[in-house]
Amino acid sequence: MTWSHLAAGNWAYEKGLHDLGNGAWAWLQPDGGWGWSNAGLIVDGEASLLVDTLFDLPLTRTMLDAMRDAVPQARRIGQLVNTHANGDHCFGNQLVEGAEIIASATAAREMAEAPPERLAGLLKMARAQPESDLGGFLLDCFGAFEFDGITLTLPARTFNGHLALTVGNKQLELIEVGPAHTRGDTLVFLPAERLLFSGDILFVHGTPVVWAGPVQNWIDACDRILALDVATIVPGHGPITDHRGPLAVKAYLEFIRAESQIRYDAGLDAFEAARDIALADFDSWGDAERIAVNVDTVYRELSGATTRTEVTELFRRMAVIAGDRKRRRSPR
What average pLDDT does range 266-281 have in this prediction? Predict the structure, then answer.
């Protein structure tokens, strides 16, 4: 089976605001790669809720201006849900003035541990060594974003497991499914609208990255989505999808786990295994180098290790794999 046709409905994968009907909108950012995340808006009556902000202040400001121009209720957003702690879903929080910011308690703690200054430091290092594999890769991933001037703005309201919310008369459910992609991943589900904002539990046409794990938790999260009565899914990255999105992510995770197990049993280390695995049906997905992180996470689970590989080392491995792939595909 191939996984090349995962988009759903009549929504073109184009940058900007997309009306999903019934008082819901999606903000999409092609190509969905590193940092190019999606967000959502839900309104009813005079009430409004934003699902996630973006990676920097200019991007978030552009999104909010477009929402306010198109949707009167967005001129004063009452609530903001951050689906998880990665900066491309929360670094713009400060611009949603007056909103009640909500996230899982675990996500809120993780946000505090990953301030924008950390990414700014990585970029500074990359700009000092742009010719190195790591420097060039980091610039490719994050060089388009502006991390200066961001004030990390944390949730004021947190929950564990499940939280019911209302936006006007609309019923929403926040469903915590982490640790998976990060430690505190949350789904935003609108049962009556059969609509789900998945955060980074779903990457569509892009490679998932298992920063936290365990992998089984993420597979279980995909199954949980599949068990819901959902017709439309706005993923954290990539085009709008339906049930095919979680099926594909689940298949990728099961594939990586199985291939990693084979190489772990054969005595390869995690980096050797990541470079050795042929991605088969998943080779066309963007950011395939994330396999370095994913295999490292599986190896940590298989070995029972309690320490995590340092993030800069993981980016170094990804840079090498990205270079490998570029050389294989370049004409000789």
Answer: 97
What is the per-residue pLDDT for 4?
59
CB atoms within 10 A of CB 161: 10
pLDDT grade, residue 167 (50/70/90)?
very high
In 3D, which of 225, 248, 116, 228 has the Cα closest to residue 177? 225
ω before 130 within 30° of 0 (cis)? no
Q: How many CB atoms lie within 10 A of CB 224?
A: 15
Residue 123: what residue type?
L
| % of the chain exceeding 90 in pLDDT | 89
User: Which residue is listed with tokens 């959502």?
Assistant: 40
Give dist(CA 56, CA 114) in Å, integer: 14
Per-residue pLDDT reduced to its tens digit, 297-327: 999 999 999 899 999 999 999 999 999 998 8
CA pair distance 1, 184, nearest whole angstrom: 31
Q: Give me the mean pLDDT over the 179-194 stretch.
A: 98
For residue 112, give the nearest of 148, 152, 80 by alpha carbon: 152
CA atoms within 13 A on the CB side of 10: 3
